[in-house]
Amino acid sequence: MTNMNLDRAALRPAIAVSQLSKRVADATGELTILHEVDFAVQAGETLAIVGASGSGKSTLLGILAGLDTPSDGTVALEGVDIFKLDEDGRAVFRQNNLGFVFQSFQLLAHLTALENVMLPLELRGFTHANAQARAEAMLARVGLSSRLGHYPKYLSGGEQQRVALARAFVTEPPLLLADEPTGSLDAATGAAVVELMFALNRERGSTLVLVTHDLNIAARCGRTLTMAAGRLRQEP
Ligand SMILES: Nc1ncnc2c1ncn2[C@@H]1O[C@H](COP(=O)(O)OP(=O)(O)OP(=O)(O)O)[C@@H](O)[C@H]1O
After folding, report:
1. For the chain, what is the domain count?
2. pLDDT value for 9
3. 226 near 50, Cβ under 8 Å?
4. Are the beta carbons of 52 and 104 closer than 8 angstroms?
5. What is this structure's pTM?
6. How far is CA 7 from the centre of its chain?
7. How far apart are the C-alpha atoms of 104 and 123, rounded to whole Å?
8. A Pfam family matched by this chain, by name (predicted)?
9. How many CB atoms lie within 10 A of CB 191?
10. How far away, in angstroms, is 64 Cα from ligand 1 center?
11. Distances, alpha carbon 110 to alpha carbons 33, 91, 150, 214, in Å
12. DSSP strand pairing (46-51 vs 223-228)
């Protein structure tokens, strides 16, 4: 078996952020949320982004996800300068390359667990039968075979987050971004979800970037970047 992580890493970094700044207008004029942030992540790496509340972590992750735009600087994901794409191009790139897990799960309330996980596959043109088979296999992988027909409100927080993980991973994206994925869970459930994320990362060779306040989770990642007042401090 070839080592996909090394093969990918040999080609280019999975993420290359250069001189990234974000400024927004506020009541007193202009506020700089991110100051000339630079970093790169190799394919297959696990990276934690930590830092005090308000230091800019979610803003940075939102820009990596192409959900927010930078004021200056570039973001290359899998070698593609995503802000050179127009909005439609970015949406397609996102659909094909990114999985995103949020603190608040963000499952669609009117869809069952199975339908939530099928959705990204159907958006990518999979037939209903194919999407269903893949989604069922993914939900089995996260231990939820007995919950396929449940709507989110009838699932526990940990179960909802496992559905969200299944949805993020089902398309096998090379890049997974997670913003406080355990923030709404108790410690034991959060630990189980994190274990699952790392297991999927190892199995798929995907790159994992996760924002967390939990230093135990950060310690499990290969590398940690610390944000302070919109600037990045790289750990040795
Ligand atoms: N659109 C905006 N307009 C004005 N201020 C903003 C905007 N977006 C973010 N901010 C401010 O930028 C700073 C960084 O916010 P961000 O959510 O990125 O921080 P964070 O490190 O993720 O915080 P937390 O850990 O509390 O989630 C905060 O002070 C926030 O209030």
Report:
1. 1
2. 45
3. yes
4. no
5. 0.87
6. 22
7. 22
8. ABC_tran
9. 16
10. 15
11. 36, 23, 10, 32
12. parallel
If pLDDT is split at 50, 70 and 90, which confidence band does 8 have?
very low
Q: Among 33, 37, 55, 71, which residue has the most ligand 1 atoms within 8 Å of its CB, making it the best to mutate? A: 33
Q: Determine the 3-state secondary structure of 122 from DSSP.
A: helix
User: How many C-beta neighbours within 10 Å does residue 229 have?
Assistant: 13
Number of Cβ within 10 Å of residue 146's Cβ equals 9
Q: What is the mean pLDDT of residues 6-28?
A: 81
Q: Are 158 and 135 in contact (CB under 8 A)?
A: no
Size (the chain), residues: 236
Q: Return d(Cα 141, Cα 148) in angstroms, integer.
A: 12
CATH number reported for the structural domain that contains residue 58 in this entry = 3.40.50.300
Q: How far is the CA of 58 from the centre of ligand 1 (A)?
A: 7
Spatial separation of the C-alpha atoms in residues 9 and 30, rounded to whole Å: 38
**Which mutation among 22, 59, 210, 213 tests ligand 1's pocket best, with the greatest number of atoms within 8 A of CB?**
59
Domain containing residue 17: 4-234
ipTM of this predicted complex?
0.95
CA of 223 to the centre of ligand 1 (A): 23
How is residue 42 written in tokens? 């190799």
Please write the tens of the pLDDT for every residue from 90-111.
Answer: 999 998 899 998 887 789 999 9
